[in-house]
Write a structure and sequence with these properties.
The protein is mainly alpha-helical. It has three helices and two strands.
Length: 89
């Protein structure tokens, strides 16, 4: 049977993740409060941020930026889109 949680991001019951998708305390918080569906939404948003901002994961400031944006996206109501971003139709 699939475990469900009340997802903080989606505001409804949804399928839970099987394990923390991120290390440490923040990973445990994500596991407890964020659904698998909302996490996949973050992964897509993160990919857009990396590509549009031309971020390098070797750069500590880029990793810090993504951590802040992840917290904003999952727990604080949203993350900013890059300036001038227009989604594909």
């Amino acid at each position: 049977m699939t475990k469900t949680i009340i997802c903080r991001k989606l505001g409804r019951e949804a399928e839970a993740m099987e394990r923390a998708p991120y290390p440490g305390e923040i990973g445990q918080r994500i596991l407890a409060e964020i659904s698998a569906e909302a996490w996949q939404e973050w992964v897509a948003h993160q990919t857009m941020l990396i590509n549009e901002n031309r971020l390098s994961m070797a750069d500590a400031s880029a990793r810090k930026f993504l951590l802040t944006e992840m917290e904003n996206f999952l727990f604080k109501g949203g993350s900013e889109k890059p300036e001038g971003f227009t989604p594909e139709k």
